Amino acid sequence: MMAAIAILAFVALAVIMALVSIQQAWLKQKSGIELFNNARWAMESMVNEIRRGCNYTVYATVGVDGLRFRSPLVADTEYIFYWRGDGTTYGNNDAIFRGVGADLSSANSSSSRKEVVNLVANTSSVFSVSDNNLVAIELTVRKGSRSCVLKSKARPRNRDPYAKLLLHMDGTDGATSFPDSAVATHNVTAIGNAQVDTAQSKFGGASALFNGSGDYLTVPDSDDWAFGTGYFTIDFWVRYNNTSGDIGIYGHGPSNGFFMYTRSSDSTINVVIDAGATMLFSGTWAPVINTWYHVALVRNANNWYWFINGSQIATTVNPSLVGNYTGVAAIGSAVGGGNPFSGWLEELRISKDIARWTSNFTPLSMDYQN
């Protein structure tokens, strides 16, 4: 009898141990499934939100691997941030966080900061932005010996095919890089001491600073600047540090090319060709220093318009051809760096084959979408 009881006890123990082993295996498998699902849900959430945004920048100003972008879901003065923690100030370095703010510091400290996914084990950056403005995410998560790698790319839904040049003028203070955010990107070169300045901005916390003594930006020659007799729009935000004399804003080509400038002697803003011999269009305007203005030059067929802060200040009819000039396009001066500008420029956009405004309008209160 005792032997039979012992055998039964041994069998029962073996069954229990087998069940425990099965349960542990299941829990381990379940943990792996949950790990994958949590990472997949986090990836889908990020991609869905990124697709609705614009103006993407990989954020590494404070050494944090992250991404910031504009979104219609938040205020005009704020960005959405995703970032991997740094192990101290910006959270655990095995987690991805989301926050909303004017900069990464405010997003990190705000009540909107949330942990999106943890157990992050990336050996390289999580976020990157390609030349054609695709946002790439590579997310590796690991728990014990189990890991999964998820990769995805998000394309902005709102892309502007008419914008041939779009300069947000954002970046770190003193930087000399000015990325083009238009669909077909152009290389921009800073001449002299042209640089990013975070002391003044209309949006995004920075603008381009020009000292009025040889500072300007150049963009290589392109058919994108050959307007002919077609529709086009050039618009930007400007803040003058000096308004005296003839001050160039934009020019394309050699001395006989196309350029825009303000003149203090008669309080005008002008667009000319042929070394100034042919005045295409002029409007009365006397800007004052240290004030932001939105300026737009529009051609709609043979109709030309000047707008300041969305209000039409002048219009005319002129069938003249804007030639396919050779030479670089200059920003912050007339052609060839002449008549340099002193002040700040931001959100400069050159649009071809479209007259964006032909009547009074309200300038957009945030960065343009790419």
Give structural notes.
The chain is of the alpha+beta class. The protein folds into two domains: 35-154, no CATH class; 163-352, Jelly Rolls. The protein has helices at residues 2-51, 104-109, and strands spanning 54-59, 66-70, 79-84, 95-101, 114-118, 127-129, 135-143, 146-154, 163-167, 189-191, 195-197, 207-211, 216-219, 232-240, 246-252, 258-263, 268-273, 278-284, 292-300, 303-308, 311-317, 329-331, 342-352.
- How many DSSP E strands? 23
Radius of gyration: 28 Å
* Number of domain modules: 2
CATH architecture of the largest domain: Sandwich
Q: What is the averaged pLDDT score?
A: 85
Shape: elongated
> How would a crystallographer describe the biggest sheet?
8 strands, antiparallel
Q: Report the β-strand fraction as a percent range.
A: 35-45%
